[in-house]
């Protein structure tokens, strides 16, 4: 069964993508930021399904009914992260103010030669965190992704900096897509993936999230066990006006348990992940960008 997020159409227009790209890189960030307001308004008005999902999420995280103002801010925060990603990929990161918290956790695993599994979410900007790690810190990061939800936008970024896409592994094509990950980790490499979207119904698990049951993928916990590497949580939070904070924290050690306790161990890890994701959503409520019914009850 296809998951809801896979069914969302990409609404971006190639002409306007190229236009905003040209304006951003040649005429300055201030003008691009001004243009984000009418662009955001267009998407808020003409995307009923994602607008409803935004309002449902904001109602949970803010604890009250939300109107157009809150939904607009949610969309606008997302638009800002897409814009800022342009500067990172184009080598103009001086346009942004990016700080890192807890990076010593990452350094310790890299120096030990053990490697680790970075688990993020559609919270803030996964791509900015990955690019900063590769370009700024020199980490060897392989990113596992489930597919292209926005192929036009992704292609625009790829043209800006092809080197940042050579270590992306697209999952879902079978176990052959994971070949070489063990060696990468054993050489102190980092593997990164997002833990808040599932693809295959047989590889997901129910966890409590904002007081209700929601689907989360088992992949982070399963990969940690298979590769025998620890899980490190990371988020790149958008703080407004080009400011970002990348946070790292230890999430869990690989689950060394017998076959009959494996399901419980996987659930425990993913519930821990859901708890921390909820914490960071409350900390930066307009940063979570899953614009679909995350609490769907389909089986």
UniProtKB/TrEMBL annotation:
Q: Which GO terms describe its biological process?
A: glycolipid biosynthetic process
GO-annotated molecular function: acyltransferase activity
The lineage's top-level taxon is: Bacteria
Which residues span the membrane?
A: 27-48
Alphabetically list the UniProt keywords.
Acyltransferase, Cell inner membrane, Cell membrane, Membrane, Transferase, Transmembrane, Transmembrane helix
Q: What is its main location?
A: membrane
For this protein, the record's CDD domains field holds: LPLAT_LABLAT-like (cd07984)
Please provide one cellular component term from the Gene Ontology annotations of this protein.
plasma membrane
Identify the taxonomic lineage of the organism of origin: Bacteria, Pseudomonadati, Pseudomonadota, Gammaproteobacteria, Methylococcales
Q: Where in the cell is it found?
A: Cell inner membrane
**Protein known as:** Lipid A biosynthesis acyltransferase
InterPro entries for this protein: Ac_Trasf, LipA_acyltrans
């Amino acid at each position: 069964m296809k998951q809801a997020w896979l069914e969302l159409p990409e609404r971006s227009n190639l002409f306007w993508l190229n236009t905003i790209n040209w304006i951003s890189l040649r005429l300055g960030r201030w003008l691009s930021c001004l243009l984000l307001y009418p662009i955001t308004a267009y998407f808020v008005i003409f995307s009923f399904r994602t607008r409803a999902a935004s309002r449902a999420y904001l109602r949970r995280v803010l604890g009250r009914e939300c109107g157009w103002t809150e939904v607009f801010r949610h969309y606008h925060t997302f638009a800002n992260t897409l814009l800022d990603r342009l500067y990172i990929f184009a080598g103009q990161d001086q346009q942004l103010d990016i700080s890192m918290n807890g990076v010593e956790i990452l350094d310790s695993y890299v120096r030990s030669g053990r490697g680790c599994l970075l688990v993020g979410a559609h919270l803030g900007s996964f791509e900015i965190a990955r690019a900063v790690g590769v370009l700024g810190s020199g980490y060897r990061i392989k990113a596992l992704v489930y597919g292209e939800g926005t192929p036009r936008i992704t292609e625009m970024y790829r043209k800006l900096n092809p080197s940042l896409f050579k270590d992306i592994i697209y999952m879902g094509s079978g176990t052959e897509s994971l070949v070489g990950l063990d060696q990468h980790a054993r050489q102190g490499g980092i593997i990164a993936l997002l833990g808040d979207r599932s693809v295959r119904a047989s590889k997901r698990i129910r966890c409590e999230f904002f007081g209700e049951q929601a689907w989360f993928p088992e992949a982070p916990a399963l990969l940690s066990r298979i590769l025998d590497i620890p899980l490190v949580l990371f988020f790149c939070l958008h703080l407004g006006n080009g400011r970002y904070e990348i946070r790292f924290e230890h999430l869990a050690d690989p689950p060394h348990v017998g076959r009959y306790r494996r399901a419980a161990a996987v659930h425990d890890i993913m519930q821990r992940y859901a708890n921390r994701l909820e914490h960071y959503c409350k900390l930066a409520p307009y940063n979570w960008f899953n614009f679909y019914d995350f609490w769907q009850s389909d089986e």
